[in-house]
Amino acid sequence: MRVLTMSDAELDKLEIIRDVDLERMPARAAAVVLGISERQVWRLLKRYRLQGAGGLISLKRGQPSNRKTPYNVRVAVMAVVRSNYADFGPTFAAEKLHELHDLSVSRETLRAWMIEDGLWQTRKKRRGRVHQPRYRRDCVGELIQIDGSDHRWFEARGPKCTLLVFIDDATSRLMHLQFVQTESTFAYYKATRTYLETFGKPIAFYSDKHAVFRVNKPGGANTDGLTQFGRALSDLNIEIICANSSQAKGRVERANRSLQDRLVKELRLAGICTMADGNAFLPGFMADYNARFAKLPANPKDLHRAMTDRDNLDDTFTWRVERTLSQALTLQYDKVLFILEPTEAAQSAIGKRVTVYDYPDGRLLIRYAEKNLPYRTFDKIRQVKETNVVENKRLGSLLDLIKQSQEANPLPTRTDKAPRRKDQSGHMFNVG
Fold it and tell me: Model's pTM, two decimal places?
């Protein structure tokens, strides 16, 4: 018994030709239904009567297509892919073949070739755990997802660093990218300030539970329970929302994966190996990326709010801490003792909480009741490790010896003995 395999169209054709053979339908009507000529209907009827249902199966089945790409073209294309784009996805590789090698091949054809040669996996093999999608927000600026991606962006050509990514939830548009040394408060201060000066204030930022955004240790929280970054956003009337899982902020996570693929290879092709050159390259990359992948918002309204005169970004993006001013007009911050000048404003603040403003560029101010309090720093005299017992007549020579030792080994600067926070300029404090 022979088993025939027929497509749905061939089965429909069999039913109609059978009706013609049994004289239940005229050939002219069958031609209209099948969309062929009446003469072709008679040919099909003749084949049906001689070969049965098998006579209606297409003779092209199992044969190569007349439009199949020549084998020598396939060999040439795959040779270029193996040597230059072995770790590229089919879509990205097809773009580069067209742009840089003048080889035009469709992404689906290239996908099939790469699967056959073991350079790519089918979606079924790459499929992981299923997570239900969340609807996008309606408007641009309603929710901005932010994240830091620590990766070998310059591969072996440069240092490992972090890319800060700001992406709009409504459109999947890259709003801001910036290479930094590490994911820190001052790095986010700088990137967020650039974002606000470019687009204005969004309604909310959506992040993970990194310590920059969320107080993870109850004992380390400020009195208001906010991190320094959270306090800065609160001053600007911008909400910070922390996602419960990486899948919850899936759009920025998927963008990170795309960037770790596309951006790394674009940087490689451009020969970029430093963060400075990388940051200069990013605006052009973002424009090309958004032109390819950004979506239209459901609502064209832009919810970014304009900056106002009340939004003092210099004072907002600072590290702020409170200290109680002692009776001696002193306070300690970052392992340094500060002595305030005995002004009327300083004396009125004795026993009260004053605020230390530590700026990213290294400046430091002490304020009380919106007034800057002048200060100087005080370093404790280095104590001798072992007490020297010496006669009075030899005291002068001992002091000279100690002086020479101190001149040869001076006290460390502030940068040496109390390193600044990451991404903050090292310096000696300036008198406020």
Answer: 0.65
